[in-house]
Amino acid sequence: MFSKIKKYHWITIAVAIVVVVGVVLYFTLAPKTTDTRPNIIIIIADDLGHNDLGFHGTDQIQTPNLDALAYNGIILDRFYTQSACTPSRAALLTGQYPIRLGVQVIPMRPGEDLALPVDVSIMPEHFKQLGYKTHLVGKWHQGMSYRRNLPTQRGFDTHFGYWNGFVGYFDYVANGIFPNGTVVKGFDLYDGFTPAWPYQGTYATYLFTQKTLQVIDSHDTTVPLFLVVGHLAAHTGKDGLEMEVPNMTLADSKYSYINETQRRRFAEVVNLLDDSVGKIVKKLGDRNMLENSIILFFSDNGAQTTGVYGNSGSNWPLRGLKMTEFEGGVRTAGAIFSPLLKKRGYVNKNPVHLIDWLPTFYAAAGGDLADLGKIDGVNQWEALSNNLTVNRSEILLNINDVTNTSAILSQDGRYKFLQGTFNSGDDDRYFGSSGRGLEIPPYNVTSILDSYTNLALQTLNPRSITKETIAQLRAEADVSWCRTSDIDINCAKGCLFDMHEDPCETTNIIELKDGVTKKLRERIEELSVGVVSQPRLAFDPKSDPVNYNNTWCTWLDDELCTKTENIERIRR
What we know:
By secondary structure, the chain is of the alpha/beta class. It is built from 14 helices and 19 strands.
């Protein structure tokens, strides 16, 4: 009897030791994640068209990782941005309409002393107050004349990337233009305030992906992460003319079914962007951060199919280009994923605007929305999580006091009032490839299921998407049915469109809906009272990169810049 008790005693001790060792190993080796603050990762494409992603119905460009993110999460069918890059980023960062900030018109240009007002708190500053580590990789484009305008002075702990609107994919050179038309070139790639010359020659999408993975790898997972990745893709690169790819021969072969050379290059740029998203999601999974993360992907505005900085992107079947308030300019590709969302795997048909993400993410992080002050955005977290509508007054798409154009959505998002023409009406038409010709290879569902993104997300919810659900969601997100005609419409005196029945803006119903038109006109007039005019400043000769070792420097903090004399300008 005694020996039996002794035996059980030793068994009990052994079990206890195993349990203790297991607990110790778990807390020692397992990644530590915060229980209350989700990681927030925002990935921004540049000048990507509505029709340049597979989940919107095109087969022309394969985007398996982005499609997997969308199908596993929520496809934002009516995701609205501003019509250009500076205003869009300002709206995202502040939760305010750009008309209140004086940045609603033309994107900031190199050598122009213009910046997002420093007295307005922005996203990273708010999230730092909640204990987040904050990082920006890639594009800034919110001002650079003083150091106080730059990311690491505006709440980001780190920034690796460029300050201006675009650079070359390999040389990282941005162009400025003197009032007399003389073009000057300067290197624009920085690690904080330090020019990152050693990286010149490395392809931008590869480099920004590498730096993003390093941020995630080195992140202390006991602290919440706020990370913005502003890709150069799919903007034009060198001199604003070229769609640069690592291997042009490969791109031409890979997309030989596309007739237009620039469109083939564009397709490869987008495919490499898609690869980047897959690697980022995989890295979050490898670090066991996905279960407590929110991942948002979107394009900052519609594609610039042709014209200045034309990249051959496609907004088909929507009307208009970048820089217009037609749907092609402001209704962009967007998707969000998080296991914290109660409902996923659906197409959200309710309007969401860039200004909404600050309050939405702040609420998801447990912040008090009163901390944000007076903003225009509304908290969409519960609405997205449960596929509900949000009660809001309207969505102002823009009031451009220089071109005298404006656009606004009604309270329920059904009606859109637009007044004005763009580029003398040349940009008011339809642009871009449909991506649906018989010569195009079929949609590759297997590549989506086998993508880095899907394999990582499946660890959270196995088999959450199938071939059948992909087909269903893709059909719901495809608005090609609305392209009933290509008739040009002159909206100089105003147009009213029914967004439910006519998202392609083919039919002006202004004479049929007098009451709606009157209300929306009056609302634009009311909002116009608060417009802060955006100054058009000439290139400041003092900013000339030749004065600063051929780099773009914070020239109004001249004493902080490395100065040079009699050096050869960048000519290439």
